[in-house]
Automatic annotation (TrEMBL):
Membrane topology field: Multi-pass membrane protein
Localization (cell): Cell membrane; Membrane
Family membership noted in the UniProt record: Belongs to the MscL family.
InterPro entries: MS_channel (IPR001185), MSC/AndL (IPR037673), MscL_channel (IPR036019)
Chief subcellular location: membrane
Keywords: Cell membrane, Ion channel, Ion transport, Membrane, Transmembrane, Transmembrane helix, Transport
Record's keyword annotation contains Ion transport: yes
Subunit organization: Homopentamer.
Transmembrane regions: 16-34, 83-101
General function of this protein: Channel that opens in response to stretch forces in the membrane lipid bilayer. May participate in the regulation of osmotic pressure changes within the cell.
This protein's encoding gene: mscL
Pfam families: MscL (PF01741)
Name of the protein: Large-conductance mechanosensitive channel
């Protein structure tokens, strides 16, 4: 039972919950960036480069053929267009995360630079003053 309790306390730590949340949000963010890249960014770039669809770019190593049993054998290709698309996704995601972290750091610096509230006398000092006033009466 001790191992189960330790495991439960480990899972319920704030860091693990925050990490799980970050992974889920990051996955959703990755899908958004992939859609942005595939559906919004790459079509105009492909159009500017001569109506090229990057996902269709490939280098064909062998031709499609039919074996003795009459089954079609697909051609062997190196799909470098998909790789280019993935690299662009990675760069966009990296830039977005960089911008978010930059904004976070800026907000943390503002919190640190905020002047501390003026502090008055401590409780001990206040109690000593009250004691002295009571003695005078």
């Amino acid at each position: 039972m001790g191992l189960f309790k330790d495991f439960k306390s480990f899972l319920m730590k704030g860091d693990i919950v925050n990490l799980a949340t970050a992974v889920i949000v990051g996955g959703a963010f990755g899908k958004i960036v992939t859609s942005f890249t595939n559906d919004v960014l790459m079509p105009p770039i492909g159009l500017l480069l001569g109506k090229v669809n990057f996902t269709d770019l490939k280098f064909q190593l062998t031709e499609a053929s039919v074996n003795e049993a009459g089954e079609a054998i697909a051609p062997v290709t190196i799909n470098y267009g998909s790789f280019v698309q993935t690299v662009i996704d990675f760069i966009i995601i990296g830039f977005c995360i960089f911008m978010v972290l930059k904004a976070y750091e800026r907000s943390q610096k503002k919190k640190e630079e905020a002047p501390a509230a003026p502090t008055g006398p401590s409780q001990v000092e206040l109690l000593a003053e009250i004691r002295d006033l009571l003695k005078k009466q």
